[in-house]
Amino acid sequence: MPAPLRRTWSPPGPYDLHRTLGVLGRGPGDPAFRVVDGAVRRASRTPQGPATLCVRARPGAGQVEAEAWGPGAEWMLDGLPALLGEGDDPAAFTPRHRLVHEARRRHPGVRLARTGLVLESLIPSILEQKVTADEAYRAWRLLLQRHGEPAPGPFERLRVMPDPRGWALIPSWEWHRAGVDHKRSATILRAVRVARRLEEAAAMDLPDALHRLQLVQGIGPWTAAEALQRSNGAPDAITVGDLHLPRIVGYALTGRRDGTDEQMLDLLAPYEGQRHRAARFILLSGRTLPRRAPRFPVGDIARL
Fold it and tell me: What's the CATH number for 5-91?
C-alpha cells in the first residue's frame, strides 16, 4: 500500500476537533465516517477521485495532524484548513442571550467545517426528508455498503459513496430495500444528473448557493440549508421546515414548547448572518424540550 500523504494544521486558538467534524457523520455506523481512538476517519469522493482522510488532534503540540490516501488525497489535504474551520470566523459572532453566551463559553473550540463537496452532504440530506433520523441513517448505510466502494487506505470498514453514474444505476428495488420511497430516490436521481452544476454551489455566496440547489425539483429550503451547512460552512444557513429545531430554539430561549419557524426566525433575528451558528450553540447548551409523546415510530417500506 502506498504511504499516505501527510499535513499538519495549527489552530489559531481553542479547537474542538470532534464537535467541529462530528456534524459530518450521518449517525452511528456511517460507512463514510468513523471516530476510532480519538481519530476522525472520513471517506469522500473528491473531484480528483476517492480519498480517505484520517485526522487527529495533538493538543500538546497545538496541532492537528492528517493523513490521506487515494487519488483524491492531495485534494483533501489542500482543503484541510477549510475543513477544520480556518476560514470560519467565530469572532464575528456576538451572543445575545445568556444561554447562548454560556454555551459558547463552554465550547470555545467549535468551528464550522467546510468540506467543499456538495453532493456528499446533499444526498444524505435528501434521505432525511420527512422520515426519522434512524430511517435515513439506515438508508445511507445500506446504500453505501451495497453500492459504494472500499475507501483507499488501511481502514477496511470505510466506504466511499458512489459517483453520480453509480447513483443513477441503482435499481428501483435496491432503493426500496434500503427503505427509500420513490419521491426521495427520484430527487437524488435528478440531483446527480446535474451534479457538476450543484458542486459549483460550494464556491457561491449563501443566497446563490441556496437558489442553485433549489432549482432541482424535490430540494427545498430545509434540504438546501442542511447540505450547505456542511459543504460551505455557512454560518447563516438556518434550517427551516424542521420538525424539532423551532421547538428546541423556542424552548431554550423563552421556555415555550410550541415554537414555529416564524417564531424561531424572530428569536434568531439578532443573529442575522450567524443564525446557524447560534442554533448550534443552542443545541450544545443541552436545554432540550422534555419529551411528552412517544418517539415517532420508525417505518420500513422495505417490508411492504
Answer: 3.30.310.20
C-alpha–C-alpha distance, residues 66 and 59, integer Å? 14
CB 213 within 8 A of CB 127: no
Angle between helices 182-193 and 118-127 (to 10 degrees): 170
118-220: which CATH number, 3.40.50.1950, 2.60.40.2550, 1.10.340.30, 3.90.1150.10? 1.10.340.30
For residue 14, what is its C-alpha cell? 481553542
CA distance 175 to 164: 15
Per-residue pLDDT of 41-79, as tens digits, reads 999 999 999 999 999 999 888 899 999 999 999 999 999
pLDDT in tens, 280-304: 999 999 988 776 544 445 555 555 5
Domain ranges (residues) in the chain = 5-91, 118-220
Residue 64, all three cell numbers: 492537528
The answer to whether the CB of 31 falls within 8 A of the CB of 161 is no
Q: Enter the C-alpha cell of residue 75.
A: 485534494
Strands (E), the chain: 5-9, 33-36, 39-46, 49-58, 63-69, 149-150, 159-160
